[in-house]
Amino acid sequence: MNISNLTKLIKIAVGTTVIALSSAASMAELTIGFAQTGSESGWRTAFTNATKAEAEARGYNFKFSDGQGKQENQIKAIRSFIAQGVDGIVLAPLVTTGWDKVLKEAQRAKIPVVLVDRGLDSDPSLYVTSVGSDFTQEGAMIAAWLAVETEGTCDIVELQGAVGADAAIKRQTGFANVIENFSGMKIIASQTGSWSATGGKEVMESFLKSIGGENICAVWAHNDNMAIGAAQAIKEAGLKPSEDILIGSVDAIAEIFKTMADGETNVTLELSPYQGAAAFDALEAHLAGKDVPKRITVPGGLFYPETAAEEWAKRK
Amino acid sequence: MKERKKFLDINPKIWGPIFSLVVIIVIMGIIDPGFIQIEFKDGRLYGSLIDILVRATPTAIIALGMAVVIGTKGIDLSVGSVVAICGAVAAVLIVETQLPFFMVVIVSVLVGGGIGFLNGIMVSFIGIQPIIATLILMVSGRGIAQLVTGGRAVSFDSTAMDIIGSGALLAIPVRLWIMTALVLCTVLLLRKTALGLFLESVGANAKASRLLGIEARMLKVIAYIFSGMCAAVAGMILIADVSTAEINRLGLWLELDAILAVVLAGASLNGGRIYLGLTIIGALIIQTLTTIIFSSGVPVEYNLIVKACIILAVLLIQSETTKNYVSQLRTKSLENRHAE
Amino acid sequence: MGVLEPVVDVQPLLEIKNISKGFAGVQALNKVSFSIAPGEIHALLGENGAGKSTFIKVLTGVYTRDSGKILFDGQDFHATSSGHAQTQGVSTVYQEVNLIPTMTVTENLTLLQQPKRFGLISPKRAKQRALEMLERVGLNIDPSKQLDSYSIAVQQLVAIARAIGTKAKLLILDEPTASLDAKEVLRLFELMRQLKSQGISIIFVTHFLDQVYEITDRITVLRNGSFIGTYATKKLPQAELIHAMVGKSLDELTSGSNRETSDSADDVLRIQNFGKQRFLKPVDLSIAKGEIVGLAGMLGSGRSELCEIIFGAQAVDQGSMEIAQNAVHIKSPKQAIDHGLGYCPEDRKIDGIIAELSVRENMILALQAKRGWLKPIPMTEQKAMVESMIERLSIKTPNLNKPIGELSGGNQQKVILARWLLTQPTLLLLDEPTRGIDIGAHHDIIAIMKELCEQGMSLLVASSELEELVIFAHRVVVMKDRKKVMELTGSDISQKSIVNAIAQ
């Protein structure tokens, strides 16, 4: 299978909420304002750059504001966008509360607002839609990757997050939804590693003994910490993680790139920095008078060992 | 008959926990013979039983300190947080400084002892109830650990830590050597001197102990210092395991496992008795259950329920009431036999 | 054996027939039989370990009997717990008041039967019922106050009020007078007579023989778990009673009184102007080598306080102390012990024994503390010491590893005495060494004290039993209102002179 198949699979997995990344003829000369939180992480900077590039490709008159980690800066930026009479506003809210007043001002000025990355607590009528990733989708993406990698045949052990945690339940569901489509894929054991490397290691150790390393094709860990622990357990059992047993996880914490660069895990997933395109699509659809769903999910980005060393150097 | 009676007379309290552990392992061995297999792999022993020993080490070491504190009629709820603080300190020292490894160990243990000292002073000299005094640090300690690392998990690269985490000496994991050494030292310290007797005396009756010339308050402080130091050692073993100090989860709820281990050993929370060896058995029982649950395929939602039920069963087996009831039944059946 | 009471004509309230109870090879009760008439005050006597407590526990269902029969009101009586016994009309008040000190009197009295109104506890009715119950025992106190704000005597009466408040026909009083002063005892007796007139029978367990003669109708004596006899109180001379209880005569118990003044000049202890604000007014006292100094006085007179400050259990704030002619400043019991002092505190159970630890551990602790934790006494040496002490003081224990809490009071006291003897003190402070222990042990302890002083040890003995002080003390210091009021020596020492000194 190749990457295009993978994309297709991901679409099956993620379902209908993905709006196709359209490069169709854009409405000419739109003025769009983007109130970003700041540039606190490498991921945030990548997000900003990707959004700028997308706006440029669409020929927008793009106004960018860096909130520098302060809500009042973001509010100031929105007011200034309103004063400038922009056609639409994209907001990456820093916090979930305190937006009602400024969102109402925008509504009175009839300027649509689209949220990216994170949601907020205001009344949904105050914004057009909220674009972001979700946990179910994250599980589905790792499952899709694994299906491609193993050509649909794999006995998987699952390291769950804390019992009852929302993220754990949804990542588990998303993963299960995808492997259902492959008769050769099944979860042969599932236990909680309580989100920690130590927990992941301990559970993996007992799996290796009770199931036998040779009977396990892959580890699906609900977060990177547990994947790191599992990799160690596999090493100590005399097997090669990422070769004898594949390992996939979610979060893209800095340390996972080091582990991956050492050739001990296979994949991690990061929230997509390419949410700008979906946000712009939603704005255009809204301005064209079409209905836009209140929630739009954008698949995250998968990272592979090939770029791991580079990412580790960037992030550590 | 006579022999058997004598065997049972050797303080049933001592046999209870050992009996429980053996029964659990034997049952598992019958269900899954792989469970009790031990192989030799890459210069070290390998198998579920070895895993149990290795995984039980941090809990066992903390429980050792807890046993001493509980023996003095105290309790130390802060140990889980002390694990986090000392783990954080050790990790930061390794990453940020060039200190030789033994200095890292010494500093962490001193930090643990220092926290124990504060607990001891609060309990012994200020007179705050132990559960409250140590609760303060239980709650705030994790925050302190976050301050130490700046709020993030700290990964490090250290050969010495790798050896502690997964090394083996004479085919036996290094951390087992550490635990054994610690237990032996504690036994020597408590049983080959009069320290253990004094601690127990203070726990059973602090006022009477003072009146017969024992420095009761100082001894309590010593107990808490010891507990803090044990937590520090456990903290270093835990971070060595995965070469990362994950402060948000490091040592979380360990205090409860440690208390449970002490109780499983047959000690009363009212103080007065310290069972060191049996406390280790208690920790092994807890870890055995955890490992069994992990390898048995019980759905995660049932983890804690299954564990709680088995522990309840073990405690019932060991309880005085059950023993009295059983001995009554036995006498009755003997009487019936005589009557026939 | 003994004078058997002629058969009483009335139907007995309680009939005990051949009750036996054993514990792991020890026969605690062996075929005990006696009966109690309605409205009778019946003394149950015996040394500690005679089986009194076991009997009460069997009767009230705390223990199940091995064999025998109990008839109560003509019915077969089989209590399953003390609560059950109480609902059947048999209530017990123990020596250690088993009420909850931190609750109010009302709460204590109505704990088991909360008066409810619409399913909720009604505080008004509860208080009313408490007042009624208190009135029955002639107590006029505010029931809404916390129980521990009242004296032990009042608490005892509250306990009795609770016990009879539930329509008791038989009341068991286990050592009710042990912690009461003379006036309080009179009050209790008045109450007992009043209950008797209401037709309530009382089993009265005590160590005070005078009280037995004052209040009871009949006496049942147990010894070593066996029934010795039931006697009419009036027909049984005290000497015969003691003989029944211990198998020894009174002469043996009081012989060998030591009266000559010690001529030893060198003082072991000398305190001058020694006191503590709001605790004890300054005291001057010296104790010579081999001398027994008695400390007389009522409860709260300062006799225990004097022992405490000498031993460093309380810090002094004035005066000076010399031990063997050297000025010392003792700030803790540890320092006192290092200077050769030993101290058996008044409240044996709270300040003396370490209940969970074994006889052996309890005995060697003080010596071990003196040696320090780094120099443990080898086990073989410990065992030898303890065994020789057990023999010397004739301590009754099945083995060295028995928790001391399970021994009888007299034996606990002997173990504590042994604890100090092992440290070879020059001066031993004994606060009420014979309180609450049986006659046999009492006799043993007095004999040991004499022997010790013959060997050159000095003793300071606080006691509320004047006849006892008169027997062994070379000198008696009388305390009153936290002050030393008189010192009696030689032939001046008599119960009368002590009482006069206190009454002055």
Please tell me about this protein's structure.
The complex is a heterotrimer of chains A (316), B (340) and C (504). Chain A has 316 residues and is an alpha/beta fold. Chain A folds into two domains: 29-133 and 273-298, Response regulator (Rossmann fold), CATH 3.40.50.2300; 135-270, Rossmann fold. Chain A contains eleven helices and twelve strands. Chain A has helices at 3-14, 42-57, 71-84, 100-108, 135-149, 166-179, 197-212, 224-236, 254-261, 276-287, 305-315; strands at residues 31-36, 61-66, 88-91, 113-116, 129-132, 153-160, 184-192, 218-221, 246-250, 267-270, 295-297, 301-303. In chain A, helix 6 links the parallel strand 6 (153-160) and strand 7 (184-192). In chain A, helix 1 packs antiparallel against helix 5, helix 5 packs parallel to helix 6 (166-179) and helix 9 packs across helix 11. Chain A is elongated and about 65 Å long. With 340 residues, chain B is mostly helical. Chain B folds into two domains: 57-285, no CATH class; 298-340. Chain B is built from 15 helices and six strands. Chain B has helices at 2-9, 12-31, 48-71, 79-96, 101-126, 130-149, 159-166, 174-191, 195-204, 206-211, 216-242, 254-264, 276-296, 303-318, 320-339, and strands spanning 39-41, 44-46, 154-155, 168-169, 172-173, 244-245. In chain B, the strands form three sheets. In chain B, strands 1-2 form a two-stranded antiparallel sheet. Chain B is globular, with a radius of gyration of 21 Å. The two termini of chain B are 20 Å apart. Chain C contains 18 helices and 22 strands. Chain C has helices at 52-59, 82-87, 105-110, 123-136, 152-165, 182-197, 209-215, 238-246, 250-254, 303-311, 333-338, 348-352, 359-371, 379-392, 409-422, 439-454, 466-472, 495-503; strands at residues 14-23, 26-36, 41-45, 67-72, 75-76, 90-93, 116-117, 120-121, 170-174, 201-205, 218-223, 226-232, 267-276, 280-288, 292-296, 318-323, 326-328, 341-344, 427-431, 458-462, 475-480, 483-489. Chain C has a six-stranded mixed β-sheet, sandwiched between helices. In chain C, strands 18-19-20-15-21-22 form a six-stranded mixed β-sheet, sandwiched between helices. Chain C is globular, with a radius of gyration of 24 Å. Mean pLDDT of chain C is 81; it is low at 1-7 and 249-264. Chains A and B meet through strand 7, helix 7 and helix 8 of A and helix 3, helix 11 and helix 13 of B.
